[in-house]
From TrEMBL:
Keywords from the UniProt entry: Disulfide bond, Glycoprotein, Signal
Any one of the GO CC terms: extracellular space
Organism: Danaus plexippus plexippus
Keyword Signal on entry: yes
GO molecular function: growth factor activity; Toll binding
Superkingdom of the organism of origin: Eukaryota
Identification of the protein by name: Spaetzle 1-2
Family matches, as Pfam families: Spaetzle
InterPro entries: Cystine-knot_cytokine (IPR029034), Spaetzle (IPR032104), Spz/Toll_ligand-like (IPR052444)
BP GO terms, sorted: central nervous system formation; innate immune response
Record has Signal as a keyword: yes
Amino acid sequence: MLAILFALFIACQLLTPTVAAITERSKDKSRCDDAIMFVEPIEVVKTNDHDKDVPLSCKGQTYCTIKTEDYPEKKFNEMLKGRKAFRQPQLLLNPLQNKQGDPNDKNDCESEISYEPLYKVREGIDKPWRYVVQSSEHDYIQKVRLERCLNPNGSCFTQFSSFLGYGTYCKQENSYWEVLVSKGENETEVIKAELPVCCSCYYSKNR
């Protein structure tokens, strides 16, 4: 009887390292299974470097109506001392098409109309921002009429049903304005900036 018990004790001692090794391998396998594997590289979202220092609502736009803390109004007040005539923004109309919205027009395209001072503009989405010259001290405020579509691509003239396979949609219309901006330390220049002027109703053939 003692011989049998002794034999069982020896067998257990021999099996213990094997069981421990299996347990350790199981732990290692568990750690591998829990690891996060990225099969493809993570996509890096590219941002426009020119938009880093502008308010969120101005990012991706060609104009900004928010006056930030770094706006150099004091500088413009000094620059305009002694001047009597100030250039106001000029809307460049296409002689073949007047895109300026009419408040009396009704086409079911919801829009937001505002008359706001411009503090920054640029000649294109990929162009650097320019400070618009404003001087409250000299009563010189470059303010323009802006009209933005609230539901671009939404249906319009909804009182009429689809006719002969055509559908309607709202589209943001823009026009160019000439705006006086800062140039260098003590100079100014006029640049063209594309601004929203109305929200129009278009039609297209349904597919």
